[in-house]
Please model this.
Amino acid sequence: MLRYNYCLLIYSLLFSQSLFANQQGMTCLLNAYPDFLSQSTDTNSNTLIWKDGTKMLYDHKVEATNFEDLLNKADLKTQMSIPYPLGILVEAPALNQDPGRLRYEPFFEKMYGNSANAVTKQLTKVFWAPSNSYVTFSRTSGASNSLATVGKEIMQQPNLVSYVNKSLGTFNWRTIQGTSRKSNHSFGIAIDFQLPKKLYKYWSWHCKPNQSCQYPKSVLTDTILQRVVSIFEKHGFIWGGKWYHYDTMHFEYRPELVNCSTSH
Ligand SMILES: [Zn+2]
Model:
């Protein structure tokens, strides 16, 4: 009987912790996208309700065999499962700490469009002040306005400008190289920059999936890059350099992660 009670206690603790985690993750989503998501949820906090009545299950009870498998099966709970660390990156991210790479694709399709055509209808030209030119970005959920604000703020620190004055592209309806998952460039909410050569690093140029990968140390010590990153984060963007599977040129509009972030 004692053992039974003990098991019951452990079970209810685990259950309530997972409920709490679900509520936290859902709250981050609701706060980040108030124009699209309804504040009402079901009693188990396991359904995200859109303002048009669409319902999305938060926790699909995903079971994955490895990290690549998890990337392919990610649900909303998985999407919110790795906290994004705000501020200066002091050490290389731990194994598979890729906050933002886990994405529930139907969520982005619903928000930004489920075809090249549908996404294109939501694109606008944004003045990117560091290059004194325009880039294409989604106007949905404040993405393009936030990008324009980042550009203006970077201009206030002239020594940051050369890092981000060459855009390598924004909208591109495509899958991530070697996968069937869509890149967030598909939704018009990501931008890449031609960083200085020693900082311009992408994990799959050097490493294989499901094998250990050495983080480029030069990225950790560059104070100009860190200042650029802080400005992006202030306006709802995450940086691919904070991923174990690093993509240092990549910035992506993900307010649900930045609002829920952890600070160093
Ligand atoms: Zn990119």
About this structure: The pocket of zinc ion is lined by residues 185, 190, 192, 250 (CB under 6 Å).
